[in-house]
Hints:
This protein is α/β, with parallel strands linked by helices. The chain has helices at 42-49, 90-100, 105-118, 134-146, 164-179, 191-197, 215-221, 270-279, 294-305, and strands spanning 2-13, 16-27, 31-35, 57-62, 65-66, 75-78, 152-156, 183-187, 200-205, 208-214, 226-232, 244-251, 257-264, 283-289. It folds into 2 domains: 2-220, Rossmann fold (3-Layer(aba) Sandwich); 224-290, no CATH class. Helix 2 (90-100) packs parallel to helix 4.
Amino acid sequence: MELIKCSNVCKSFGEKVALDNVSIEIPKGKIFGLLGPNGAGKTTLIRIINRITIPNSGEVLFDGRPITQDDVEKIGYLPEERGLYRKMKVGDQAMYFAQLKGMSSREAAAELKKWFVRFGIESWWNKKVEELSKGMAQKIQFITTVVHKPSLLILDEPFSGFDPVNAQVIREEILRLKEEGATIILSTHNMESVEELCDNIALINKSHVVISGGVEEIRRKYGNNNVELIYTAAKPLASVEGIYNVLSDVAEGAGERHTAVLEILDGATSNEAIQQIIAQGAGINSFKELVPRMNDIFIKLVTEEE
């Protein structure tokens, strides 16, 4: 069952159409990637889900009913534009944000201390925000987003400002929060993170949904019947009419081991290709389907829209 369901959501700012009949479903307990180029409408949709702005038409359901302001307390939102009070102490600010989400002072202090220990940043509690680097401040914002244990997390470019080590720490925390039952909307341009983390995605471009569904389902849908073949033979493989074309073939040094990319032609099967490869005297070391990367699919769909 979905936690969030957006049905025919439209939003305009004057003559500018930000969202045009956008419908998406975000399943409970999953990580949902919200993708699209800059200006596509992603942030507007996020703000509508958060009730920061109201759609011109359409509806947003939260757990099967129209979303209300009370539901916002069950949401943790990390916006792309970071907002910490630079002159405040880190601990005071974290306490302030936690209490805004309905936590008592005692509960907020206990949970925040757990997070500070988990991230190894206990010594930051009495520092002022202006003393922190961008990545350090980002950690504080991540903690204040999740400390009240929201059922829905909305993370807009959560890896911005992090070095690779700390970005991996955040990825692991996102997966851990999912395992604990949180539903997560991840808005990012990092396609590697999409493939690593997301169960489902929706691609928005020019204010409407271009494609939505499971990540693996979409990757296979946009596959092009190419396979990677590693084989051993005295000479390179030849294409076989009606079965496959050899798109590339690279030998390792002066040896007989080759890595090739084959296009399996329409109407042919992988088994038929394997039979033809063996018939040419090649020994097959590995034979695997080449599924396109989300980055390639993203570029293809956005370019076609343009």
